[in-house]
Specification:
Elements (H helix, E strand, L loop, with lengths): L1 H11 L14 E3 L10 E3 H7 L14
Antiparallel strand pairs: 1-2
Length: 63
C-alpha cells in the first residue's frame, strides 16, 4: 500500500496544469549604477549576448 501511495505522489508532484505559459521574461529594476548597465535588467537580453551567471537573493529567504 505504501508503494502505491509513493508512486501516486511521484506522478502528482510538479506542475499539474497541462498548459505551458509563454512569454515570461525575468526583468527586474536595478540601482541604475554604471556597472548595472541601465535601470532595468532583462535576463533574455543578457542571454542573447552569451552565458550569464545570475546570483539572486530573495528577501523572504530564511537561513
Amino acid at each position: 500500500m505504501r508503494f502505491v501511495a509513493l508512486v501516486a505522489l511521484l506522478f502528482l508532484s510538479g506542475c499539474l496544469e497541462s498548459t505551458i505559459e509563454d512569454g515570461r521574461v525575468f526583468t527586474v529594476e536595478t540601482l541604475d549604477r554604471p556597472e548595472d548597465a541601465g535601470p532595468m535588467y532583462s535576463m533574455k537580453d543578457n542571454l542573447s549576448e552569451g552565458p550569464v551567471l545570475v546570483l539572486f537573493i530573495g528577501v523572504g529567504c530564511i537561513g
